[in-house]
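TICKET: design request
STATUS: open
ATTACHED STRUCTURE:
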């Protein structure tokens, strides 16, 4: 009898850890969702602090194969917008290895004809994928068409 109780307890605890998405796929665990949010915020804090070379490590391995660390750092560190703050907004995870993360990004922009920078608040939605046991951002590529 004790063996049956252990098996039942194990099944119950597994059921609590596994979430099912609306489409029937197993969604990432609460732990994975926390990791995704943490990594997304860490990446943006690096970008805010002009440390894009370090933020490069958060990019998916496939994306990193298409762009060097130096090129990415130069592109991101030299943007005309100056990001100042990041806050988590929402997550949508419908597959075990894919999540969409929405973040609030505060920024300052120098506008022609306006004295000093103009503060702005915007939202970005990022796709994060799990590969090799680790979560990475899959950046949107201009001109790429999904299928």
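STATUS: resolved
RESOLUTION: sequence designed for all positions
ATTACHED SEQUENCE:
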């Amino acid at each position: 009898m004790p063996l049956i109780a252990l098996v039942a307890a194990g099944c119950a605890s597994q059921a609590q850890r596994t979430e099912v998405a609306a489409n029937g796929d197993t969604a990432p665990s609460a732990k994975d969702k926390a990791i995704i949010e943490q990594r997304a915020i860490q990446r943006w804090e690096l970008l805010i602090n002009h440390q894009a070379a370090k933020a490069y490590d958060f990019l998916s391995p496939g994306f990193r194969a298409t762009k060097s660390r130096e090129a990415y750092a130069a592109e991101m560190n030299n943007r005309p917008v100056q990001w100042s703050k990041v806050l988590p907004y929402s997550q949508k995870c419908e597959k075990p290895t894919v999540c969409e993360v929405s973040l609030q990004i505060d920024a300052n922009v120098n506008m022609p004809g306006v004295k000093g920078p103009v503060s702005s608040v915007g939202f970005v939605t990022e796709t994060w994928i799990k590969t090799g046991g680790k979560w990475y951002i899959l950046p949107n590529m201009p001109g790429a068409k999904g299928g």
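CLOSING REMARK: The first strand starts at residue 19 and ends at 20. Helices lie at 2-17, 30-48, 52-55, 61-64, 69-77.
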